[in-house]
Amino acid sequence: MSNNISVSIFMGSKSDLPVVQAASDTLNEFNIPHRLFILSAHRTPEEVVKRVKESEQNGAKVFIAAAGMAAHLAGAIAAQTTKPVLGIPLGGGDLDGMDALLATVQMPKGVPVATFAIGKSGAINAALCAVQILGTTDEKVAGMLIEYKSKMHDDVLAANESIQ
Q: Which fold would CATH assign to domain 7-138?
């Protein structure tokens, strides 16, 4: 396992990778070292615990977990760490992600999971939230966030100007 990671991203199955890739790409924009795992809260629970502990030993300060349907992965991670856990509910299944959203957001008192929107926009926002958390103690990251938000501002104004 690579040392010196800031964020560990867990997904429940390989089919989740297209959505999770958006989170990884966002972290790459900010040069945030991270690692991806495909592990299931239900099928590989011992391995989830092992990888959470290894991630912490390798410097992980934030965990991101993406899962669909029963979506217990974020909660399983939150039970093992005191670091922030950011949950991304994924679409699919008969309820098209509503089950995953409710499973991710309805955590018991004392086991918090910050929950984002279903799907790709949630993945991007979870990654941006991880960057914001890291930016509280890293001035370079904080500066990159300021530039990122400034670019969004300028892009909206340019789009507005283009239709005037």
A: Rossmann fold (3.40.50)
